[in-house]
Write a structure and sequence with these properties.
The complex is a heterodimer of chains A (295) and B (423). Chain A has 13 helices and 2 strands; from the N terminus they run αββαααααααααααα. With 295 residues, chain A is mainly alpha-helical. Chain A has a single domain, classed as Orthogonal Bundle (MetI-like fold), CATH 1.10.3720.10. Chain A has a two-stranded antiparallel ribbon. The two termini of chain A are 22 Å apart. Chain B is an alpha+beta fold and 423 residues long. Chain B folds into 2 domains: 174 residues, Periplasmic binding protein-like II (D-Maltodextrin-Binding Protein, domain 2, 3-Layer(aba) Sandwich); 213 residues, Periplasmic binding protein-like II (D-Maltodextrin-Binding Protein, domain 2). Helices cover 43% and strands 15% of the residues of chain B. Chain B contains 20 helices and 14 strands. In chain B, strands 1, 2, 3, 6, 12, 13 and 14 form a 7-stranded mixed β-sheet that branches. In chain B, strands 8-7-9 form a 3-stranded antiparallel β-sheet. In chain B, helix 2 links the parallel strand 1 and strand 2. In chain B, helix 2 packs antiparallel against helix 14, helix 9 crosses helix 10 and helix 18 packs antiparallel against helix 20. Chain B is globular and about 70 Å long. The chains are: A mainly alpha (295), B alpha+beta (423). The interface between A and B is medium-sized, with 27 and 36 residues.
Chain lengths: 295, 423
Amino acid sequence: MVYGLKPLGREKFWLWLMLIPTLIGLAFGTAGSLLATLGLSLFNWDLINPPRWAGMENYVQLFENKDYIEAFVNTLKFSALYVPGVVTLSLMVAILLNRKIRGVHFFRTVYFLPTVTSAVATALVWNMIYGKETGILNFLLESLGFAPICWLCTDNAMMSVVIVNIWGAIGEGMIIFLAGLTAIPRDYYEAASLDGANELRQFFSVTLPLITPSIFFQIIISAINAFQAYDYIYMLTRRGQGDSSVPVAVYSIYRNAFHFFRMGDASAQTIQLALLVALFMMIMFWWERHYVVYE
Amino acid sequence: MNKHLVFFVVVSLFLASCGGGAKPAAQEGVVEINFTMWGAPEELAVWQAIVDDFHKANPNIRVKVNVSDWDSYWTKLNTLIAGGTPPDVFAMDAPLFLDWQSRGALLNLQPYIDANPGFLDGFYPQTLTAYKTPNGYYGLPRDFQTIVLFYNKDMFDAAGVNYPNADWTYEDLLATAKKMTLDTDNDGKIDQYGFWSDTWDMELLWSSVIWAYGGEIINADHTKTLIGEGSARDAWAFIDSLYKQGVMPTPTTSGEFGLDLFQSGMAAMTTIGHWAVPGYVQSGINFDVAFMPKGPAGRATSVNSAGFVIAKGCKHPDAAFAFINFALSEAGQKRLAELGFAIPVLKSVAESDAYLKQPGNLNQQVFLDSLAFARMKPVFKGYEEWASMVGDGLIPVFDGEAELNATLDEVIAAADEVLAKNK
């Protein structure tokens, strides 16, 4: 399938030439800051005085730091709730919106809106929804005769925040699943229904196996987002002195680095988080080899 | 030939534009210094006026003023200092002073003070202590804040309740706050709270209450948190009762109503500093101020200051100090007094009409007379982290999710760990 203009001279040369700007950006931006973080994690640095060598000390201290452990456990809990939530809900929405119904484009737009809206702005709206005295949710609960709930108090804040994050991510997941769903040939469903398979059977025997690449992709994307979740959490759970009722790992990294002047600790936490994400990816790729079906 | 000329022009234009960006065309003999501060946009105009006055008196120094909001100010400052380009002069909050001074970020101002005999004579002495170290002053206060009791006169008049007076105790505050807590439209929800204040930072309420009950906050060498010792517990029980009796909205609830419930006309009383006055006046609140109430151990309030510091690596320390010197002179302090956010550190200006006759027709004398029983907001290393452990740690108690004494024990242990880390 060769058409269009042929490159002058050697194709390889042009290929590299065009890639160089991106590669330089990657080398300095991504790899550079990664190496800098790795280096900083071995030092104690308060941003003003020259860094002092600390060796593995910052890493050892992570296991004694109660606040970091709490933040880390919160990140794990958050991910355990968020990833399955995003994957199942956005798959459901995608299946519902993959039909020929009236106004399907309208609904797809509505579900996609949170993705393209500023998290800070929507978090403010969610604050009004969750408010204990003035919130819409409690207004509904009370008019049904239930006691009001403090949605953003310490006990419920995790669930409330997970719900907002899932809500914000459904749109993106829906797009990925819609792409996967439309790629499944119609004949498969026709063949299945000729064989007498009902809709439910068709879903489990045709749709689900053929959509595993999308599911795999969506799990990876939402897991990365879960480990890095910050904006809604910051907006909804920040307390007066900058702490949070749901402190997550990224929150802890930010405060240690830019409020408590401990770049070394913050870098060690970053590296640990990165290792965790990498470990999760390895497990996922192992799973991919065994369970994901590519046509 | 022609081609070369075009090439030459293009290149030199390019170089000129680069050079222009990096190095502003400086006049011969004129030094430029940067002054960075936190503040509201309207403060920038007043500072620009002070700077203009300063330029007239010192034509060979140019001052560039940068204003950021509180949160981004500290992030920006960290980044500038880490990048090796600190602002020459920058604003400092007294409780955070030691965090910066102990890290060696600040210039010792003592030689400059020694070179100006009598320089500190006109200052309120309480405002100076925060910036003093064994090696001399590493900063100077520019204005100060005492915490007083604000009350909404219209709400008191409507309820037919007497205004707070100088004999009030905290029991009187609670009893009156109960009378002023109203459900005006009878929908089962409170529309007017008797009292509102922040309890996440010690400055607005809880430090004053602890001192008035005879408790302490931290020991002298900053190794032990004392907010759970002896009568300090009674002070906490009192603060908790403000929440439990419903005269003050819980921290999570007050977040829903906006940042300041006194300003939004939802609370009859609050305890806050002078910085709130311009906003209250602008919102059309009809209010006045009174002393903080008395506790079993007498009366107490908190005094805190904002100040100037010079970065250690500053290239023009003489020019930087000249600017500070000017801002702390009567002329500079008068301008600041007119701005109305704070109280001048110069006694002569604070007791003049420039301060006392501000808009709002308040009893401004209350802020000054409070100094007689005011105690310095504690200044120690690791303040921000410590304050978060205590202030944020107690929020579940005030939200009604946790028990006071057990939580206090946990919070104090965590706060002591922070102190140990910052030794």
